[in-house]
Each structure stands twice: as C-alpha cells, then as structure tokens.
Amino acid sequence: MEKRELLYEGKAKRVFKTDEPGMIIQDFKDSATAFDGKKKGEIGGKGSVNANMTVIIFKYLEERGIPTHLVEQLSDHEIATYQLDMLKLEVIVRNIAAGSLAKRVGYPEGQELREPLVEYFLKDDSLGDPMLAPNHIWELGLVTPEQLDEITAVSLKVNELLIPFFEGAGLKLVDFKLEFGLKDGRILLADELSPDNCRLWDTETGEIMDKDRFRRDLGKLEETYAEVLRRVQERMR
Ligand code: TMP
Ligand code: ASP
C-alpha cells in the first residue's frame, strides 16, 4: 500500500489517501490537546503508544465479534484502515464516576456506578462537544433509532470485553470514548483505544495512568504512556 496525499489533519492524527480504493492511513501524532483544543502540548512517544495499543485492542475486539475499521499496522505510528463515513457522535461508556460526569451530577470521583452508563455527545469542537439525548440524535439525523441501538449494544459489549482485558494489565477501566463510522451501511468501530480516550487507574495504587495526567498537569507523561503499553503488551504474552 502506498501513502498518497494528506486528506485531513486532526488534533491527534494525520489521515492520508492511499493507492488502494476505500483505504486510508492514520498517522498518530505525539501532539496532545485538551479542552476542545484550547490546551496544547507534546507527549514524546504518544503516537507510537496509541497506534500500537489501538492495534492490539482492535484485534482483540475483532476476535470477539466487534467489527472495526482496522486493516493492518504499517509502522510504529501508522495504521491502515477502511475509509468510513464517520458519524459526528462520541459515545462515552462509564463504570466509575470521573471527569465531566462527576461534575455534572455531583458524584465524588471514584464512585462506582450501579451499572455501566452510556452517554452521547456531538463531535463538534466549535460547539464544545455538547451532550445529546437520543431525541437530539434523531433530530440532527446523525443515526436512526435502530443504528443507535446497535451502537449502544456494541459500546456495552466493548466495555464488557475491556474491563477484564485491562484488569489483566493491572488497570481499572474507569471510562472511555468510542467513535463509529459507516462502510457500505455497516457500522464499524473507528478512531482509537488508547490512554488518550480511556481513563485507566492503577488497580493497586489508584494512580492515574491516562491523558488526565496531561489535562491536570500531573507530570510523568511519557513514562505513563509507555508503561500502559508495556502492561498491555505483557498481558497479551
Ligand atoms: P469526560 O469525563 O471529560 O466527559 O471524558 C470521558 C471519557 O472520554 C474519558 O475517558 C476521556 C474521553 N474523552 C475523549 O476521548 N475526548 C474528549 O474530547 C473528551 C472530552 C473525553
Ligand atoms: N482531545 C480533546 C480536545 O482536545 C479533549 C480531551 O481529550 O480532553 O479537545
């Protein structure tokens, strides 16, 4: 597969055309942003950690019945994927209260939820990614009710698979964000699964092992990203 011209540059990835119809290359960057791009920085090695971790987890999910956009890993920081019609929807699954949920409903961070909670947000930085109820989703024509049911079921299934996956790496899966896209009308899991879009706490010490270290200026960024990948790789042996 040959890399062709840049199609799109996002906050965390560059997307390139390829010589293969329907396939693109996602090149993971070391740059980090938070708060809808208002906070900017670099985390050395992040692109490589996120690409490698996404490949391991997407393969793990594929083998367990979750269809994803992954085609193959091309280098330490590049993966080939199908080109999808991306849904302007961010799906968040939560097991433990943290971040914006803790703030919104007044729960202390760390409070276990009765059951996994699914939330939907509009993917639009200029609007600050507002939260959506299902009625907003129909109104905006983002997906049909049937498609939202499928997306919700897949998101919960991903959570069910990833809780024990991360437990085996000494990490508690607090919450995570998923994005989906359509290929020939079929819903595929897209984007990434990495410390950028998951909250992961050390099972023993409770230490924060994800992008909250960047959002909250907690330091040890490079080391933490590298350690999470090391544990995930170790877990697969
Ligand atoms: P939140 O508590 O800030 O709403 O974040 C919930 C989860 O979603 C957390 O694991 C971080 C992830 N996330 C993203 O991947 N992208 C985003 O833009 C935001 C706000 C959160
Ligand atoms: N990546 C998002 C942004 O820059 C926010 C986040 O992950 O906190 O807006």
Observed structural traits:
14 strands, alpha+beta, Phosphorylase Kinase, domain 1, 2 domains, binds aspartic acid, seven-stranded antiparallel β-sheet, five-stranded antiparallel β-sheet, 6 helices, 237 residues, D-amino Acid Aminotransferase, Chain A, domain 1, binds thymidine-5'-phosphate, globular
Q: Domains counted in the coordinates: how many?
A: 2
Bound ligands, each once: thymidine-5'-phosphate, aspartic acid
| Nearest-integer average pLDDT | 97
- Beta-strand content: 25-35%
Relevant CATH superfamily of the largest domain = ATP-grasp fold, B domain
**Overall 3D shape:** globular
Radius of gyration: 17 Å
What is the share of helical residues?
25-40%
CATH architecture of the largest domain: 2-Layer Sandwich
Distance between the termini: 29 Å
Summarize the structure in short.
By secondary structure, this protein is α+β, with helices and mostly antiparallel strands.
Overview of this structure, please?
There is one protein chain. With 237 residues, the protein is an alpha+beta fold. It has two domains: 3-82, Phosphorylase Kinase, domain 1 (2-Layer Sandwich), CATH 3.30.200; 85-220, D-amino Acid Aminotransferase, Chain A, domain 1. 32% of the residues lie in helices and 35% in strands. The chain has six helices and 14 strands. The strands form three sheets. Strands 8, 9, 10, 11, 12, 13 and 14 form a seven-stranded antiparallel sheet that branches. A five-stranded antiparallel sheet has the order 1-2-3-7-6. Helix 1 runs parallel beside helix 6 (221-236). The longest helix is centred in the middle third of the chain and has 23 residues, at 145-167. It starts with a strand and ends with a helix. The relative contact order is 0.16. Bound molecules: thymidine-5'-phosphate and aspartic acid.
